[in-house]
Design brief:
Blueprint: E1 5-11, E2 16-17, E3 26-33, E4 36-44, H1 50-56, E5 62-65, H2 70-78, E6 82-85, E7 90-91, H3 92-104, H4 109-117
Parallel strand pairs: 1-5, 5-6
Antiparallel strand pairs: 1-3, 2-7, 3-4
Length: 119
């Protein structure tokens, strides 16, 4: 699988997945592929509006965050973005490396499904 994933990380400190989806100060957008992960964009969030935030990350395949409300989660899923929730703060660098490893070894079913959608 040579495709890349476009991944959004909700962050307040620019280094960690440390933000609730609805109150994140920004989303760091990465292209993640078998060769590595690269930051392609940093989207600042100036207005706390779920629909507008989802519009800003619409072309992402996956979004990581600390927490999310049920309505926002449903909207993300309905837009075809796979949500991943953590209970504690996690390094963006560590998580992006895990994704690279998964793509190189044996991607889980949800990643295979994302990549298959593109064919």
């Amino acid at each position: 699988m040579s495709s890349t994933l476009k991944v959004a990380f909700a962050t307040n400190d620019n280094k960690n997945i440390d933000a609730h989806f609805g109150s994140a100060k920004q989303f760091n957008i990465y292209d993640v592929g078998v060769g590595g992960a690269t930051v392609v964009e940093k989207i600042g969030i100036n207005e706390k509006d779920t629909d507008k935030t989802i519009d800003l990350i619409q072309d992402c395949d996956i979004v990581y965050f600390i927490n999310i409300g049920p309505t926002a989660a449903a909207k993300i899923i309905n837009r075809g973005i796979f949500p991943i929730k953590y209970k504690e703060v996690v390094s963006i660098e560590d998580e992006s490396k895990k994704l690279v490893t998964m793509l190189n070894e044996n991607p889980p079913p949800f990643i295979k499904k994302i990549l298959e959608k593109r064919k």
